[in-house]
Each structure stands twice: as structure tokens, then as C-alpha cells.
Amino acid sequence: MKIDTHIHITPPDIIKDWKKIGQREPYFNLLSATPHNKFATYETVANHLEEEGFDKGVVFGFSFQDMGLCRYVNDYTMEAVKQYPDKFIGFMTMPAHHKDLEKEIIRCYEGGLRGIGELFPEGQNLQLEGLHHTALKACCMNYNLPVLLHANELVGHEYAGKTSVSQKSIETFVRNHQEIPIILAHFGGGLLFYELMKEIRSSFKNVYYDTAAAVFLYEPTIYKVIREIGILDKLLFGSDYPLLPISRYEEGLNILKEEEKKAVMGGNALKLFETCHIL
């Protein structure tokens, strides 16, 4: 089974009015105004997955600061799951410090969504060190919800959306939420390399990493390095579509052995989602 674990979908009216919405959502505006940005409706995503021969995709809306906008894109994701129940796995978005967090999680879970994310720590003004005091952890444990968290490397070239959230902050979040599966986007901003440290490997037992935007970030040899570290079983394929089409990852992934490639492109995600009773 082939599974793409990182796909953004956007309601048509938000696509139409993104500039207006961006006036009160700085991070959304920053990403939307870039030359690389593209928007995709869930119909477009379903067609893309079909064209690329993928069985399933994890879809979610933008994680706004405003809970009202998050509810709106969550409604759209629930609609997507209802229209394509065999194709989509829906995640929910929300400001994780909001007083109505638990209420929104329950609403979305009852509406068919089975994960949280992609959360944007800096873009949503989330203090990761303090999130264990919210209802997030309890709800994730109660409903078996994995969390997809944005992470980026703090060195190298600049690009829109590159934040200053430290690896230490993400590590603290992981340590405070070891009971729930956490998917760190974009290779965890390089945190996966620290799994060579025994204490990180121990506290990160429930952590996974996705390949989103790999084409822009690393040389293909990163897959060999991950193999040598011994955590290839924790790597999940994520395209970051519509930023990049699935096909752009083929060349890099071909550096892996066929069985390893199959695991990254779906087998690892299948095991995780079966554990969470999502599949």
C-alpha cells in the first residue's frame, strides 16, 4: 500500500480570498504569497493520488491562529473524507492552546478525522514547552490521535515559512507527549540525526519523520544516512502536495533498496495507522 502522509487541501472560497484572510493571518499570508505556493481542493488531490498510483493520503487544512477558520477548514476535511472514504485519512487543525480545543477535537473525531496537524508552532504562536498543560495530550490518548508537527532546520538557506523554533523546544514537546505518536514534518528539522544519542532514541520511541519538501532540503543520500542511523522504519513518505507532486520524490527514493522504498512509501505509515486503529 502506498500512503502519502502530508497533503494540504484548501476550500475553494479560501483559495479565492486568500489575500483577504492573509491580512489577519500573517503566517498564512507569508506562505501563500510565495512563488512556490499552490492551492489544491480535495478533488484535485484525489485525482493526483490516483494518477500517481497511491492508495491513500493524509489530508488537512491550514492551521490558522483563529479557531473559527480552523473549524471551517476542518469542516472541509470532514467533507473530503466523506466523499472519498477509501482514499483520504483526515487530520484536524486548531490552535493547540485554545480553550475550546477539547470540544473541537471531539467534534472532528465524531466527524471522521483521525489525527491532529500540521501544527505550526511559530505560525500559531504555540509555546511547545507549555502544551502538556492543555487538553491536547489527554485527547490524543483518549482517541488514539497522532500529531503532525511542523519542524525545520535552523541552518542553511532561507525560505518563506522557515521559523526559529528550536530543536530543544521540539524535544521538550516530545518528552512531554511520549505516550502519543508524533510525526515530525520535514525530517524533523534534522532532529532525526540526534537519534544517534541514546537518550534521544529512548524518548523518541513514538516519533516518526516525514519526507515533506525533501527535494528542496537535502541530497538523496539522506535516505542512506537514515538507514545507517537505524530509523528507516520511522520514515514516512510525505509529499507536501501541492507544493510538490509525488513524482518529484521518485529519483531520491530510488537510492533505497526496493523493500526499503516500499516501507517508506507506505508500509511504515500502514503499521503506525493500524496501531492507532485508523486503518
TrEMBL record:
InterPro entries: ACMSD, Amidohydro-rel, Metal_Hydrolase. One of its GO terms (biological process) is secondary metabolic process. It holds the Pfam family Amidohydro_2. It comes from Zhenhengia yiwuensis. This is Amidohydrolase. The keyword Cell inner membrane does not apply. Keywords: Lyase. The lineage of its organism: Bacteria, Bacillati, Bacillota, Clostridia, Lachnospirales. GO terms for molecular function: carboxy-lyase activity; hydrolase activity. GO terms for cellular component: cytoplasm. Residues 3-273 form the Amidohydrolase-related domain.
